[in-house]
């Protein structure tokens, strides 16, 4: 069961209804991706997406996503499929994959300029591949197959980073939901299952924030200003990224009071566990965007499997 709007926070920190706009697909059913083929190992990344405004403002963050897409293209990295795990699609106890041919663009926020609501990301889905993956992957909780969803689409955790990165929107995109009621280690275990997909042409993207406390945001704060607890938690995550002790990221609720301040709800942290779980042994991260938004959001991001 999807929690849908219950996972969406408005600009002011409250719950907000959202709109779902669809665009017609120019692809015939037989032109959609039918199966994944063996490939060189794709990178896996976690992106701090921050404010939705980053997609329309000329921020450092937006420029970094654009540059990352250009780097991937220049290095000949051509994903067959992008699998995105976004902080904004929460389900109760089951995992789900978007299974439609033309996913909708979801504007899951409120109180922003019309220009933001006008943004569309018309990338195709991959229904047949979704069906295959739903059968291949299984719940670490009870072993059940994944569900196929026909109602969700691309929320802003997905399209706000993919639009600057892959503006032509030609690569098929699929979202994987997160069962919010399950223990963090179960999310990491699902990430472990995703590792093999990297060698089948799948670019895995986790989109959230390492620190995310909307109620504590300071609108006038500069990129290098943050609360002590923001810096402390952000540093503790970085230490685990550097050491390669990625499984320990799932114990974050035991790290002390700074964890609860960094994540009053941990929906924005969980995508990191999927990306970390998909990392192969010995892969070192390239960390970037090591700054803050509004003192209470860490934009720290990491990519594995992309040589310098």
TrEMBL record:
Protein family (similarity comment): Belongs to the DODA-type extradiol aromatic ring-opening dioxygenase family.
GO molecular function terms noted in the UniProt entry: ferrous iron binding; oxidoreductase activity, acting on single donors with incorporation of molecular oxygen, incorporation of two atoms of oxygen; zinc ion binding
Membrane-crossing residue ranges in chain numbering: none
Residues of the Extradiol ring-cleavage dioxygenase class III enzyme subunit B domain: 45-294
Stored CDD domains: 45_DOPA_Dioxygenase
Keyword match Cell membrane: no
InterPro entries registered for this protein in UniProt: Extradiol_dOase_DODA, Xdiol_dOase_suB
SUPFAM superfamilies: LigB-like
Presence of keyword Zinc: yes
Source taxon at top rank: Bacteria
Protein name in the entry: Dioxygenase
Protein source organism: Comamonas testosteroni
Gene3D superfamilies, sorted: LigB-like
Keyword vocabulary terms for this entry: Dioxygenase, Metal-binding, Oxidoreductase, Zinc
Cofactors (names): Zn(2+)
